[in-house]
Amino acid sequence: MNRLRAILICDRDPLFREALRNFLLAAGYSEVDVAATIRVALTMLRRNVYGHILIGVSRTFVCERRLAAVARRRQPKAKILFLVSGDDQPAMKNAPFECIRKEQAFSTLLALM
Fold it and tell me: What is the pTM of this model?
């Protein structure tokens, strides 16, 4: 297995965030960092280099877009994916990055990475 690059997960839901972290660790990723807030995620982006950045999206989606823009500037090689609930999916039509429904994350995420 090739060396798998570090992952950052930023999501407000602690159960989903930790379940996704454990899923990725079990899949062979050795470094999976989690952030409960955008402020913590920004701090982590300053300290570490990530191959993938997974951002949970809320209804307003403003702060998450800003986080993605900062991540793109600081780490242009990182693949950014938005994690979207089914209820929030219509707001994601013009999203600047690829979206994954949270309900399908465990079945589709590895194929996208």
Answer: 0.84
Angle at 74 between CA 68 and CA 78, to 5 degrees: 65
Structure tokens at 12: 């407000």
DSSP secondary structure letter of residue 10: E
71 near 100, Cβ under 8 Å?
no
Q: How many CA atoms lie within 13 A of 109 on its CB side?
A: 23
Helix (H) or strand (E) holding 11: none
pLDDT tens digits, one per residue of 5-16: 899 999 999 999
78, two tokens: 């990182």
Q: How many CA atoms lie within 13 A of 44 on its CB side?
A: 21
